Amino acid sequence: MITITTAVKEILLQMAAASSFLMLFQWRLNQSHITRRNPRCSDEYTFLVMACGLSLVLCSLLSGNLFGMIDLNWGILPAFIGMLYGSFRSRALLALMLPVCTYVFSDPVTQSHVLLDSGIFMYPLLFGMANRFKFGTVVEKIALLWIVLVPCMLFIAFTSFFDGNDFSRLQDDKMALILCMLFLNPLLGGVLIYMLESAWNKREIEERIAYMSEKFRREIGDLQQITDMVPLSIISVDDNGRITSINETSMKKLEIEIPHITRTDVLNCTLSDLAHRLKLNDNRELDHLLDSVTRKQKFMGKVACLGKILYVLAAPLVPRDQGQQAGMVLIIQDMTEEENIRSELNHVERLTLVGRMAAGITHEIRNPMAVVRGFLQLMREKSPSDMESYYRIVMDELDRANSIINDFLSLAQSGLSGKEDSNLHDVIEDLAPLLWADANLRGQSVELRLCDKLPLLQLNIKEIKQLVLNLGRNAMEAMEPKGVLTLETRCVPEKVELLVKDTGSGMSDMEMEKLFTPFFTTKEQGTGLGLPLCLSIAERHGGSIAVDSCLGTGTVFTISFPYEKQEKAAVVC
Ligand code: ADP
Ligand code: MG
After folding, report:
1. What pLDDT was estimated at residue 113?
2. The domain boundary residue, chosen from 279, 302, 334
3. Are 57 and 122 within one domain?
4. Is there a single domain that holds both residue 372 and residue 387?
5. Is residue 372 part of a domain?
């Protein structure tokens, strides 16, 4: 007969053997990476059933008999847990293993032992509850285990009673130990399920956190790339005004002002430090911005610094779920170019108005001038001949004033009237006699180099003639006798080009810069309106003028006229 101490030891041994599956399973959870819980198909469930089977065998191997009264084999506990967690097949396997182990290790082996101690009577209930068990909460799971386990423990007590054991002969402490053993078994079952579920949940949470942090890291990377790509400077600062992040666009702009500055340098300083390093002192707008950032107030406005006009939006960052503020973000847009264009547009608008008024006034001046000229003509006829030279000067000056007015009015005229499909070669050939005559008077020559085929263009012939004449005259005026004026045409993709070349004085860089500016002239009798007029004619035809000049060698004006694809079809010789 064993003593109480040995019996306690044996009970503890059974407890350890029955719990061994949990240790194995925890080891397995720590090894595995994917523990998404899928009750229908998961490696973890298969492993759990195998570990329970092993625990069952261990319990059976260590089984014994308490005071010759009752079998001590807790294999039923891991077997039932395995059957409840496992699939139908693993459940059937454990259901077979349990009676086999009970049969092999029971002493004495009787039918009632195999039938009652292995809990075979509870199998239908166990199989029926398994599905509910899998999707239940921890408490439900423990309750379901107890529903099948508690009757089994009672069966075990009954079998030893039916075997004829006289419990009344037992001392009270031994009886208490037996009762304790019977009570401890389901209690341990509950604890094991609780620990198993906790371990499993913890692992799942760990996995989820790892997945979320990886996703978070990726999203931060994506966000950083996006902020780096936008053509805006984005800077965020913490509550103390210290810069916490800065995008690539800002870094590039900073590098222009402070060479060799690194992101780490910037991240270690405040906005005021940065302004100080950029030597931005005495800037009221900037001070206002820095003040708003310090007071964590929204700022929206223009800041002029480093010769640039910046549009700055500074706004406090408020996390969506908390009411608390988390620093500020500054979005800076360089508006220098836009501002320049805007002021230029205003200037142009004012000029247009002035131009329109001037055109109106000029037009009105022509009539009184015509009257004055007419009367001068009359007076000239009736005046003595010694006054003739004075009249000639007055009349010449009146004619010059009239030509300035005509040029100015042509320049002021906008919009096109009378465009028609025309051949540029015809226009040039029409003008050729006039140019030849002019060139002859100056001792110069004119050369035509017209290409073979040219598409028809939408031209206002009157204006194009004026353009060619103006450029031709300028060229002749820039050349000495024996100079050669060349008019060349060529057809390049989508464009027809007219080149007016001369072998004249050419122009300096300064002259080139002022070219096309109204009233810019280097000639005593010049109006400075010829080239602006040519440019406006070219632009009204959707074209452009390019100039290439070399001092002392000559100048080439290239006028490009665009033509549509369908015009290509109408190619003429
Ligand atoms: P204008 O002929 O009345 O001076 P334009 O607008 O036609 O006015 O020309 C402006 C100025 O551009 C000229 O005074 C001259 O200095 C320069 N220029 C124009 N064409 C040529 C050229 N082919 N070669 C050299 N200078 C030229
Ligand atoms: Mg001219």
Report:
1. 67
2. 334
3. yes
4. yes
5. yes
Please tell me the distance between residue 428's alpha carbon and the centre of ligand 1 in angstroms: 21
Atom of ligand 1 nearest to the CA of 554: 24
Binding-site residues, ligand 1, Cβ < 6 A: 470, 474-475, 478, 502, 504-505, 507, 511, 515, 520-523, 526-531, 555
Instruction: Give bridge partners of residue 488 from the DSSP assignment.
Output: 449, 499
CATH of the domain at 365: 1.10.287
pLDDT tens digits, 210-234? 999 999 999 989 988 898 888 899 9
Q: Is 245 helix (H, G, I), strand (E, B) or coil?
A: strand
pLDDT of residue 257: 86
Ranges of residues in the chain whose predicted pLDDT is under 50: 40-41, 567-573
Provide the pLDDT for residue 34.
53
In a domain, 280, yes or no: yes
Burial bucket for residue 316 (CB in 10 Å: 0-12, 13-18, 19+): middle
Assigned domain for 226 exists: no
Residue 359 and residue 467 share a domain: no
Q: How many residues does the chain have?
A: 573
Interval between CA 568 and ligand 1 midpoint (Å) = 34
Amino acid at 405: I
Q: Is 547 helix (H, G, I), strand (E, B) or coil?
A: strand
pLDDT of res. 442: 93
**Which protein residue has the closest C-alpha to ligand 1 atom 18?**
474
- 431 and 535 both lie in a single domain: yes
Helix (H, G, I), strand (E, B) or coil at 358: helix
Which of 408, 474, 485 has most ligand 1 atoms within 8 Å of its beta carbon, as the pocket-test mutant?
Answer: 474
Q: How many domains does the chain have?
A: 4
Calculate the alpha carbon distances from 199 to 81, 145, 251, 363 in Å: 15, 18, 48, 98
Q: Ligand 1, closest atom to CA 473? A: 2
Least Cα distance to 228 among 250, 212, 209, 206 occurs for 250
Helices marked H in 69-171: 76-85, 88-105, 111-112, 123-134, 138-162
For residue 269, what are the domain limits? Answer: 231-334
The H or E element spanning position 237 is strand 233-237
Q: Whose CA is nearest to atom 3 of ligand 1?
A: 526
What was the pLDDT predicted at 320?
Answer: 59
Q: Is residue 218 in a domain? A: no
Crossing angle of helices 138-162 and 123-134, rounded to 10°:
170
Same domain, 441 and 470: yes
Q: 424 with 498: CB under 8 angstroms? A: yes
Q: Assess contact for 105 and 149: CB atoms under 8 A.
A: no
Counting Cα atoms < 13 Å in the Cβ hemisphere of 38 gives: 7
Domain boundary among 315, 334, 353: 334
49, 178: one domain: yes
pLDDT score for 569: 44
Within this chain, do residues 107 and 196 fall inside the same structural domain, yes or no?
yes
pLDDT at 415: 53
